[in-house]
Design brief:
The chain has nine helices and no strands. It is mostly helical and 275 residues long. It is globular. The two termini are 16 Å apart. The mean pLDDT is 86.
């Protein structure tokens, strides 16, 4: 990865951090709906805010940032089943080369019906979480965050305080990648992807003020994130096919064909992680 520039800037760290955090909170509230695109956008906004809270934690009020990060994680997890089902549905839509026979197409349509039913249930569970006391309190905290961000004492320093924080995030990603290469398990791939997201999101918001090298570092992190995301999505599809598409023999046969395709893609993707 590229080295971090130490471009001088007259802004304080807090001056740069305040609009970043406020914008992320606003994006969560603005996109908080249940369409396929909105679920993805909401989860991305949540990940961005969690990444800021994690990477820039020394510049924020520690107790506040830790508590909010935990609540955001809970909210993100309540959306995860919906997002996973959308990924599986899109993957099934992309398997046109396997639907030469009417029976194949009919079986895939039946699987899509199963997914719709599961998505309806997952949506109901999410709506209950969002309307719960915990959910309402979190949304109120985010609304307040659009106006006020609790900063720590170090936020009054110059923007050079961001440099060691980005370097730390980059080291954490490199360590996670090394662990993943040694053992490309689902958990290690997931952890490396989280580190890549944190580094990418931090660099993207800092680059306009702190130097072009942040663009390069952020782009490298995004490449890692996208590559690992494809690997994990393939695994999600395979697990769903194995667990949920075996009720009807005809559907199970086609699901088995698709599972083999997914497993082959998963194996190839894992092997490429070592290269």
């Amino acid at each position: 990865m590229a080295e971090v520039d130490e471009k001088p800037n007259l802004l304080s760290a807090g001056d740069l951090l305040l609009p970043i955090v406020k914008q992320a909170a606003g994006a969560i509230l603005q996109n908080d709906s249940l369409g396929v695109k909105s679920v993805h956008t909401t989860r991305t906004a949540i990940r961005r805010l969690r990444a800021y809270l994690r990477t820039f934690r020394p510049l924020l009020d520690l107790r506040w940032s830790t508590g909010l990060s935990a609540e955001l994680q809970w909210y993100q997890q309540s959306l995860a089943p919906i997002r996973d089902l959308d990924v599986i549905s899109a993957w099934l839509d992309s398997t046109g080369e396997l639907t030469d026979y009417v029976d194949d197409a009919s079986a895939i349509e039946a699987m899509q019906d199963i997914i719709k039913g599961h998505r309806n249930k997952a949506t109901h569970i999410f709506l209950e979480a969002r309307s719960s006391v915990r959910g309402v309190e979190l949304l109120n905290r985010l609304d307040l965050l659009k106006r006020e961000v609790p900063l720590g004492a170090r936020a009054s320093n110059g923007t050079k305080v961001f440099l060691p924080l980005v370097r730390k995030a980059r080291r954490e990603l490199q360590d996670a990648e090394h662990m993943m290469i040694e053992d490309p398990s689902r958990q290690h791939i997931h952890e490396a992807r989280i580190k890549a997201k944190s580094l990418r999101y931090a660099c993207e918001v800092l680059a306009p003020n702190l130097g072009k090298s942040f663009v390069k570092i952020g782009a490298d992190a995004k490449n890692v994130q996208d590559r690992l995301g494809g690997v994990l999505d393939t695994l999600i599809v395979c697990e769903w096919l194995e667990q949920n598409a075996s009720g009807d023999p005809r559907t199970a046969f086609v699901a088995g064909k698709l599972w083999v395709v997914g497993q082959q893609s998963w194996g190839v993707a894992r092997s490429r992680l070592r290269n």
